Amino acid sequence: MSRKPLIGVSACTRMIGQHGFHIAGDKYLRAAAVAGVPLIIPALDELIDQATLLESLDGLLFTGSPSNVEPQHYAGPQSAPGTPHDPPRDRLTLPLIRAAVHAGIPVFGICRGFQEMNVAFGGSLLQKVHEVEPYQDHRENPEAPLDDQYGLSHDLHVQPGGLLDRLGLPPLVRVNSVHGQGVERLGEGLRIEALAPDGLIEAFSVEDARSFALGVQWHPEWKVHEHPHYLALFQGFAEACRERARQR
Ligand SMILES: N[C@@H](CCC(=O)NCCCC(=O)O)C(=O)O
Q: Where is region (Disordered) located (predicted)?
């Protein structure tokens, strides 16, 4: 009997009162359930044996987060004072992404997760996209209702012949946009899959990956079942996770 794939979902660390927690957003966990049974992976690199984790999982989803990857990981300039970081998450996710792709485990990175994938493969990040020519402001209005913040915001030019193309995305779609950072230098071995109209890299895949390995800067997990182009990404991820579960 075939069992459902197990999907690891990266956690952020948070303090609630005086206690530390490892949390993952509801929308990521629900969207991960398109591919299998979601399991939150705590940001405890010192306690988690990576090989055991990878042997046990059929896919990994690296989520978005208000925090930014610490710039020391890509030799970037110091962050502006007050920038939110999550060092335990960086310590877990950056090596885990490399190891998972190397092991042929399906990997899907969203927003911060996309930025982590770029850094994991040696790329660097723009810390304030909106302050760099020729880029537009890709941030949401934090005062607006959530449906507006995650509403369709700009065009996306899907590159021909890539993974997004194979997943059935047409050359031009519209996506939401909820980020202040973005790809500066693309990581080694990453293939551009989609661009914003201002030229910002919005999606990449890992060229020599043995399985699904995709990062997207937008949020396909948002109301995933209402957006066929968002759902197509999770269905592609799901198919790869099922294949991995069959092989194990
Ligand atoms: N902090 C980074 C990444 C942006 C990001 O992941 N935003 C999502 C926030 C909340 C969520 O929807 O999970 C940046 O600003 O570029």
A: 68-91
